[in-house]
Amino acid sequence: MAVEKLTYKFLVVVAMLTMLATGSTAQSLKFETSDSTRLAFRNDTIGTAHKKMLMPDIEAMDSTYKEITLATAPLQPDNTSSTTPAKKTGTKSPGIRKPDPETATWLALAIPGGGQIYNRKFWKLPIVYGGFVGCMYAYNWNGQMYKDYRQAYLDIMDSDPNTNSYKDFFRPGYDYEANKEYLKEVFKKRKDRYRRWRDLSIFSFIGVYALSVVDAYVDAQLSNFDISEDINLSIEPQIIDSRQMYGKDYYGFNCNIRF
Questions:
Q1: pLDDT tier, 259 (very low <50, low <70, confident <90, very high otherwise)
Q2: What is the pLDDT averaged over residues 88-110?
Q3: What is the CA radius of gyration of the chain?
């Protein structure tokens, strides 16, 4: 009796193990069959009737695959929302200073070199002030020489022996009377020359002043001009086909500017 019970239990255990093994194999076959059926459904290799019958299973499988993919896929950064604010059209980037051309012009008109200081182009100040100082020095020098030669010319032209400032231009012992006509011509030419140079010094001063104003305006206007490598100039030879109009070709140069 005890032997029969042991034999019965042994057979039950063997049957259970056999059922488990058979179920696992069947489940594996079911998955493989389901995958092949899903592939055939996608590739339109089965009929319409089979599609209608398998549609619920295919949709359930797709839903399961999507859930598994979302659960196992790594987190991706969201590109739709960014902490960097979008650039606004027409607004200047932070940290880039853009001088106002009108302000730079008025400052340059009011104060010599004021436009360059406003544009923060301090290296131009020695050029501007150097031009002013040079023009002022030329004006003073030519003005003084003009006064001296003018007075000497007036003195040599009159008949008063007490007005003889022209003698200061020569060494002692020089014979003025023998060369008086020649000296009159020399003093007249030099008087006119230094007067002309004095007047040119005034116009030069005005020119330097005007150039400083124009430079301040243009510098402020082109402060953010694009000078990247995308801008280039290319000049290359080119054959101009004009045989239909003139009967021959012409040779020239092609100039391309790319922004």
A1: low
A2: 76
A3: 51
Tokens 């619920």 found at: 56
Q: Where are the beta strands (DSSP E) in the chain?
A: 232-240, 250-258
End-to-end CA separation in angstroms for the chain: 104
Question: What's the half-sphere exposure (Cβ side, CA atoms, 13 Å) at 209?
Answer: 14
How wide is the angle at C-alpha 215 spanned by C-alphas 212 and 219, nearest 5°? 145
CA distances from 227 to 110, 223, 258 (A): 31, 11, 12
What pLDDT does residue 25 have?
Answer: 47
Tell me the pLDDT tens digit for each residue of 12-37: 666 666 665 555 444 444 444 445 55
Q: Which value, to the nearest 10 degrees, does the dihedral of the CA atoms of residues 135, 137, 143, 147 take?
A: -170
Q: Look at residues 68, 90, 28 and name the one whose alpha carbon lies nearest to residue 224.
A: 90
CB contact set of 142 (below 8 Å; sequence gap of 6+): 194, 195, 197, 198, 201
Backbone angles phi and psi of 91, in degrees to 5: -110, 145
Could you identify the residue written with the tokens 């009011």?
110
- What one-letter code names the amino acid at 57? D
When comparing pLDDT for 178 and 34, which is higher?
A: 178
